[in-house]
Hints:
The protein contains seven helices and eleven strands. It is of the alpha+beta class. It has two domains: 14-145, 3-Layer(aba) Sandwich (Glutaredoxin); 164-207, 2-Layer Sandwich (Antioxidant, Horf6, Chain A, domain 2). The N and C termini lie far apart (42 Å).
Amino acid sequence: MATLRLGDVAPDFTAETSEGTIKFHEWLGEGWGLLFSHPADYTPVCTTELGTVAKYKDQFNQRNVKVAALSVDGVASHQGWIKDINETQNTTVNFPIIADENKKVANLYDMIHPNADNNLTVRSVFIIAPDKTIKLIITYPASTGRNFDELIRVIDSLQLTAYHKVATPANWQDGDDCVVVPAIKTEDIDAIFPKGYTEVKPYLRMTPQPNK
């Protein structure tokens, strides 16, 4: 299939996981989703990533984000790996790991890059909005662990900009000033953003974060 792009509907699927069978869209419900893939079970970098996500579960819950991991190994392998993750990362895995032995989901989401490896999924991340459209795609090489602080930051930006007429500047953190979107005329800013604004340039107008 064609490569997925931002704004595409995230493909639906039914799969076995470490927490039972899920129908992906139904499982997501009305909330946000984060789907991230791993080259294989019992891989060192992934072990640290899954442990980190388990520790961040409360932060994802606060943002109404459901998290699912994926590996091309089976449920029995996942269950054994989870024991190792819990032991070595001093946590408890508290989200499903999808078993994708036939690579059905990996192919739906274009997670296998033959020039990197013919058989293993690359380290992909998809953030999915409540309308099931894909809002973020990041692909990491197998050697580089993901930064979940950055993914939380991106989710904060996506949720803020989905509901307010702002964009977030470079290195933005929750609570920082935001960019007024170009579609808003300068004479209309005061009515929309009562906290005021600073005009750096006619095309660069900053305003305090509107939902803080």
